[in-house]
What we know:
Layout: H1 24-50, H2 57-70, E1 80-81, E2 86-87, H3 89-113
Antiparallel strand pairs: 1-2
Amino acid sequence: MAMQPQAPAPVERVSVTEQGRYNFRAAAVVGFVVGLVDVIIAARFLGKLLGASAQSAFVHFIYQLSAVMVAPFTGIFGDTGNKTNTFETASLVAIVVYAVIGWGLVVLIRIVTAPHGTKPASS
């Protein structure tokens, strides 16, 4: 009598939610935008500190672009330096504030978009 092969046992598929799964793309976009803003403001800070000529088209563009971002922090601390080389504290405050806001937004995205009942991944 020939033995017939037995059919394999049925496989049960179980949906497993990964711990810490969140909307990575949204968090990455926020991180990119905040990083870009901080780089632009840092370029402004270095330009002012090293006395870059505002007559240069690129320097003028950076100063104009970053002026809107730095404006809310102007006057918190006094700027030091002479007419050409300025230690602009408003730029440093702006970099820190925008970085903290960006970090907070990323944490909020991770908390809000994590599946119910999971802990957001730590980083």
